[in-house]
Amino acid sequence: MFQRLKLLAIVISIIATTESLAENLCSIIGTRTISFKVKSERNITGYRHVTTDVFLREAKGRNLAVSGDIGLDVSQSTCTTTTERRTHLTSTIVVPEKRLPPPGYELVPGVGWYRLHLTPLTWDEARLACEAEAAHLAVINSQEEATALKKISDRYPKVIPDSKWSDEIFIGFCDPVEGQYITIFGETLSEAGYETWHPRQPDNLRTDLEEKQDCGSFIRTSGKLNDSTCKAKLAYFCEFSI
């Protein structure tokens, strides 16, 4: 059984403070918050334990300047003298190297890299095609991002000429459980940051393909979400996170 005690006489020296970390990294990875919490506990035998927790928090969206995990290594040492105990924390951040998008991707400043593919594919085919480019089906995280995709698609009045799906573009969400829409990353649309549907959508309308509409799409004319038949062949948006 542990009794929590207020930490009074521990001097903490942190080589990289949260402020300097944020200042040095903002130009590389965007705004992030790193916080340290130190807790002192004493068990029934009288031994004191100092525990360090480190939190790395980032905003929604994947359009940062780096990809992959950002490593944060923290080491802790304690020195006891006759008058005090000193705890020293050392932190090291490992940031993956910046990578460049493949040819054909367009940068929307402050939003991300996108490519609109006009060769129609099914939703699963489109997902694999994006992954083959080290990208993913686009996931909309904000109104700003939805507006950016609409501006790109506006250049193509009918993304697939002579098709009844000419205004629909596959993006990265679906409803594997009927009516529960999630992104390819497992987030709900609300958690992802954008849940604005085209009028009277989603309607789960059956089509001549004899399949319910379980895959997500983007309506070019409105910039809003729609449910589409997964086996339909549509244009699709890929998003590249650098």
UniProtKB/TrEMBL annotation:
SUPFAM superfamilies per record: C-type lectin-like
Residue intervals of the C-type lectin domain: 114-239
InterPro entries recorded: C-type_lectin-like, C-type_lectin-like/link_sf, C-type_lectin/snaclec_domain, CTDL_fold
Entry keyword set: Signal
Stretch forming the signal peptide: 1-22
One Pfam family linked to the record: Lectin_C
Xref: CDD domains: CLECT (cd00037)
Protein name from the UniProt record: C-type lectin domain-containing protein
Lineage: Eukaryota, Metazoa, Ecdysozoa, Arthropoda, Hexapoda
